Amino acid sequence: MKTPFTIAALGLASIISFGASAAVQQVNTQQAQNLQPMGSVSVTQVTGAPMDIRQQLAEKAEKEGASSYRITELTQGDHWHATAELYK
């Protein structure tokens, strides 16, 4: 009896977490021209792939209350570094 409830709860949690991460979207330079800037965020010393960097930028943007972000810098040396402009 508990197994179906657990599966349903996990399914609902995954849908909710996907919706939260999808709330902030990445935009390009042309799309950003129609948006109001509200600051910037950056991540450094991140291991992994560029998608991991984008996910961390999106999480920071969401915490700041942004609806969109545009990556302005992405470098890889000994570690990754990325900066993004935030928009309302």
Automatic annotation (TrEMBL):
Which Pfam families does the entry link to? YdgH_BhsA-like
Swiss-Prot/TrEMBL keywords: Signal
Signal peptide range in chain numbering: 1-22
YdgH/BhsA/McbA-like domain spans which residues?
Answer: 35-88
Name the domain of life: Bacteria
UniProt key word DNA repair: no
Cited InterPro entries: BhsA/McbA_stress_biofilm_assoc (IPR051096), Dodecin-like (IPR025543), Stress_YhcN-like (IPR047775), YdgH-like_sf (IPR036275), YdgH/BhsA/McbA-like_dom (IPR010854)
Has the keyword Chaperone been applied to this entry?
no
Coiled coil feature spans:
none
Q: What NCBIfam families is this protein classified in? A: stress_YhcN
Q: What PANTHER family does the entry give?
A: OUTER MEMBRANE PROTEIN, OUTER MEMBRANE PROTEIN-RELATED-RELATED
Q: What is this protein called?
A: Peroxide/acid stress response protein YhcN
